[in-house]
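F.,

This is the one I mentioned.
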């Protein structure tokens, strides 16, 4: 039963009148959710295998997170970072004790990237300012983050972009080596490229970047906005590959759907972020920190790291046979709860068709169907979603 006070069309009319139309929105008003299911204002239910663009890593309204936010809101919503608050210390301990170093908190992935870039420059001599990033990567929408994003479509109309970023092909160590010079201070990479199409690094590539960084005194930054918080079956993506960066960024699912970002750096790098050099007004606020602690507790107490590995294999078992069955399926890439089905045709039409059948998915990089399921997606939901998607792929293949 819907609890919405307005119909979807009434809400859409409000948006048309008052909201800047910078997003391409589907004509649906979502009103409530539970786990991997979400309902619109009219009470129609959808299975969401891309919940919150990866932010809802525990699905919709995870009970521990909801309870933590409710309790915290009744006591303290916001205080500035000129004061100590227990919740920020607890969440920093929860994150760093499962990785390394010290943490800084902000509100989003783009902010986290901005802070990491600043820290890399601050930690190296002033003459070093260049950062190497990778084609088809994605790092955010602020100016430094969008410049770091080596995809021309995101640069259109925004020039001149920031100086100091150089782009290398993904999985090409020789190209990275050639770009390094006396002005290079760091390397920035997603352990798995998300928006670029769920691109998994070749064996030895991340290890090679670590070696190059050590050899040339560079700061190695991993953008873990998508791969962090259990997404790959380990707490953080770098642990899946056994390569420790100097800094890694976090956002999206880090607080179970509550707006939160941050980065973690090695102990010896942390002092370079001196007072006054970087800040975030709402970063590390009590609400987000309480939600983050509850997210960690949920993942741990519900054994979701192991569960997500099992569900990842279940997805793979459904999708990999399609490579031989359907000529439009070029490749299936699965790693933890990141799934990419690369097609020979545009993937966007599938999003609409699946939505009409009650399944929410994503299309990225033109031809890739992308799923970022919640870590606690059930086996039945995996089967339900895979069956719906495979049926639509078969229809698309028949249509030629």
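My design for it:
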């Amino acid at each position: 039963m819907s609890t919405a006070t307005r119909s979807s069309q009434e809400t859409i009319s409000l948006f048309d009148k008052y909201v800047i139309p910078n997003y391409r929105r589907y004509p649906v008003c979502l009103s409530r959710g539970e786990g991997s299911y979400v309902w619109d204002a009219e009470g129609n239910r959808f299975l969401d295998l891309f919940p919150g663009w990866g932010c809802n890593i525990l699905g919709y309204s995870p009970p521990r997170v909801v309870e933590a936010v409710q309790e915290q809101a009744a006591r303290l919503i916001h205080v500035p970072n000129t004061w100590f608050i227990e919740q920020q210390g607890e969440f920093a301990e929860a994150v760093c004790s499962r990785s390394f170093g010290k943490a800084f908190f902000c509100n989003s992935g783009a902010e986290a990237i901005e802070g990491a870039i600043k820290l890399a420059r601050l930690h190296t001599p002033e003459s070093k300012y260049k950062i190497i990033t990778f084609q088809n990567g994605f790092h955010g929408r602020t100016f430094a983050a969008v410049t770091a994003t080596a995809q021309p479509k995101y640069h259109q109309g925004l020039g001149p972009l920031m100086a100091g970023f150089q782009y290398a092909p993904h999985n090409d160590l020789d190209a990275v080596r050639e770009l390094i010079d006396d002005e290079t201070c760091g390397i920035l990479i997603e352990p798995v490229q998300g928006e670029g199409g769920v691109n998994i690094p070749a064996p030895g590539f991340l290890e090679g970047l670590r070696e190059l960084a050590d050899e040339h005194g560079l700061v190695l930054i991993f953008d873990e906005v998508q791969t962090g918080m259990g997404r790959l079956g380990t707490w953080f993506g770098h642990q899946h590959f056994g390569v420790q960066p100097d800094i890694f960024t976090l956002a999206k699912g880090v607080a179970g759907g509550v707006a939160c970002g941050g980065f973690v750096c090695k102990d010896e790098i942390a002092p370079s972020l001196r007072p006054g050099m970087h800040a975030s007004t709402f970063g590390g606020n009590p609400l987000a920190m309480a939600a983050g602690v509850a997210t960690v507790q949920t993942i741990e107490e519900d054994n979701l790291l192991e569960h997500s590995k099992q569900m990842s294999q279940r997805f793979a078992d459904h999708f990999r046979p399609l490579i031989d069955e359907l000529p439009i399926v070029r490749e299936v890439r699965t790693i933890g709860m990141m799934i990419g089905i690369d097609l020979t045709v545009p993937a966007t039409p599938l999003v609409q068709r699946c939505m009409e059948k009650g399944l929410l998915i994503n299309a990225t990089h033109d031809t890739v169907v992308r799923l970022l399921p919640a870590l606690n997606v059930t086996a039945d939901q995996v089967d339900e979603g895979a069956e719906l998607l495979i049926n639509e792929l078969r229809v698309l293949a028949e249509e030629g």
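The chain has a mean pLDDT of 97.

Talk soon.
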